[in-house]
């Protein structure tokens, strides 16, 4: 508990230092932080809305365990994966959208998909003002034809949910890069580039970068003779 508190203080401090370089992002960051005090995202409640969302996605309550990626961690991982101006990043399981601010910090387009509507409604407006879109939805059904980079902090997902998510990843364009936290994508066609230990709000975790290189051409595209 003490270590989580210390990590919290340290990462808030580094977040704020980074935001001094991009003062436009300070306001939405402040809104995210204020909402965390008003209603913590770290204690999921079995509300009617939460149970309905879980029933629809076929997931369990324990898959909603919450944790965030500090800005410095996200920026370093994204840079390593080649995120920059002209990139389009999607965060699958975006929580309250802290990661989207890291993508905007790098000049990329940022979109987040989050299952729990309460997370989204609390912060979508301040995020939208700096061009970051946070939407309610099931990541396993997300439209992934457009992104150049996909991030997922899937530490709490059950193997069945991960498997459905990986099937969805296959709807991405070849060359799309994937940044995953805790575990790599264990499936053919996702070529691993690197693994790094990085700091998260709950401790140190592995961050994996992969590239989607399908061996079979996408449906409708013929292999050259
Ligand atoms: C560990 S948090 C990560 C938050 C954020 N991506 C970050 O790294 O700062 C995981 C989030 O995924 C959400 N989630 C779980 N299953 C989901 C699904 N099928 N579709 C969208 N979001 C989901 C949870 O509600 C939770 O907010």
UniProtKB/TrEMBL annotation:
What is the organism of origin for this protein? Stigmatella aurantiaca
Q: State the CDD domains in the record.
A: AdoMet_MTases
Q: What is this protein called?
A: Class I SAM-dependent methyltransferase
Record-linked InterPro entries: SAM-dependent_MTases_sf
């Amino acid at each position: 508990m003490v270590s989580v508190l210390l990590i919290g203080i340290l990462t808030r401090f580094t977040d704020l230092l980074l935001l001094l370089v991009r003062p436009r992002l300070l306001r939405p960051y402040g809104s995210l932080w204020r909402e965390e005090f008003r209603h913590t995202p770290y204690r999921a409640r079995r509300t009617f809305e939460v149970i309905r969302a879980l029933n629809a996605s076929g997931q369990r309550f324990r898959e909603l365990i919450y944790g965030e990626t500090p800005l410095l961690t996200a920026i370093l991982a994204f840079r390593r994966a080649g995120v920059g101006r002209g990139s389009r990043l999607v965060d699958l399981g975006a929580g309250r959208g802290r990661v989207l601010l890291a993508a905007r910090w790098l000049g990329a387009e940022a979109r987040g998909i989050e299952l729990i509507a309460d997370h989204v409604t609390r912060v979508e407006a301040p995020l939208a003002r700096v061009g970051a879109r946070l939407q309610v939805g099931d990541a396993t059904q997300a439209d992934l034809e457009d992104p150049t980079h996909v991030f997922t902090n899937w530490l709490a997902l059950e193997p069945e949910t991960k498997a459905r998510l990986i099937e969805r990843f296959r709807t991405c364009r070849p060359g799309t890069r994937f940044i995953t936290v805790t575990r790599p994508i264990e499936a053919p066609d996702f070529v691993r580039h690197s693994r790094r230990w990085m700091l998260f709000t709950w401790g140190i975790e592995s961050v994996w970068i992969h590239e989607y290189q399908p061996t079979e051409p996408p449906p409708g595209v013929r292999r050259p003779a």
